[in-house]
Amino acid sequence: MRVANMDWRMIDDWVRQDDRAVLPLGSTEQHAGLSLLTDAILSERLAFEAADPLGVPVFPVVPFGVAPHFQAFPGSITLRVETLCAVVRDVLDSLKRSGFRRILIVSGHIGNAAASCLAQEWMMDNPDCRVRFHDWRRAPRTLAQLQATDPVGSHGSWAENFPWTRLDSTPADEAKDTVDFDRLGTLPPFEVRTLLEDGSFGGRTQRADEEMLAIWRIAVQETREMLDAW
């Protein structure tokens, strides 16, 4: 259940019989022809669809992440690593005060990986709590389905082009050569924009919705099983 549809009494009732909660993490950054909020949209929607049948509360997505490499693209926002970790720590502290002891972080942005280390550190100080960091695209079955669908796909490509991240202005199916990742990792933001041009890392821009929904169903099920196993 989305916390947006709950009041504080409902949370109080929930934690009396279950201490699980879900916290989605996203990012606001360029995704070529897709929504700037692609990572936030996907992590929040996935968290809700996975948790809703179990009744587990899903908190609002943290919409900003660590994305310094895209700062030459207008509309992209980045947090410093220490800022992201401070925000996640404060949220975890607040969730614990509310009575939650098992928290699943669902991340839709690889740049937020530092939050995984923070979660381990936080549990060291809070041994009565458990936090799992779930980078949903890299979960085993989801990643296998992505690669089986098309081994060439990355940031801003078909792999993130779902019906709910697509815009009216999103290009139809096109193909782009894969970027030189070794070079990309050495460049400052302005040069990253020059190298990427439209912002995509390469591959096709779109695949059939049937293929994307098949990936999505696996991702939802894999996330739900992780949450249900607790």
Automatic annotation (TrEMBL):
It comes from the Bacteria. It holds the Pfam family Creatininase. GO terms for biological process: riboflavin biosynthetic process. InterPro entries: Creatininase-like_sf, Creatininase/forma_Hydrolase. One of its GO terms (molecular function) is metal ion binding. Its cofactor is Zn(2+). Keywords: Hydrolase, Metal-binding, Zinc. Gene3D superfamilies: Creatininase (3.40.50.10310). SUPFAM superfamilies: Creatininase. Belongs to the creatininase superfamily. This is Creatininase family protein. It comes from Rhodovastum atsumiense.
